[in-house]
Amino acid sequence: MRRPALLLLAGLVLAAPLQGAAREASAKPPPAYNPPPETSRLIEGPGVDLARRYCLTCHSADYMSTQPPHMPAAFWRNEVAKMRNNYGAAVPEDAAKAITDYLVATYTEPSAGRK
Ligand code: HEC
Q1: What atom in ligand 1 is closest to the CA of residue 95?
Q2: How far is the CA of 44 from the centre of ligand 1 (A)?
């Protein structure tokens, strides 16, 4: 390798960290964002406190209340399992069971089969 090429290479290697520092220094804080007040609510019932604690961190109660009322109990069992296993919802086992019971009792109409 000739000397000018070597100098160029050394210059690039030395300048790289400086570029990163310059980029960090010019990064602006994210703009302030004030979301509107939450309007959707979970229906009251036994277990609603657990559902509030564990199910509203990522999305609103609309995700539950807009499901069709004829969904059977298995649907809610699968939903809670999907949230835990696929989407990373940190819901302890006993709370998951209680929340599933709450959802079935509250969001599944009796004729749909609550078993
Ligand atoms: C870690 C984040 C997270 C938590 C906590 C969470 N969810 Fe979800 N949920 C998601 C994501 C992501 C989706 C899919 C959103 C989309 O497709 O737009 C979703 C979608 C849903 C849906 C819509 C149907 C579907 O399957 O896409 C329902 C119903 C639902 N969640 C119920 C629950 C319940 C009940 C809990 C509490 C046990 C819960 N979620 C907790 C992330 C979460």
Answers
A1: 38
A2: 19
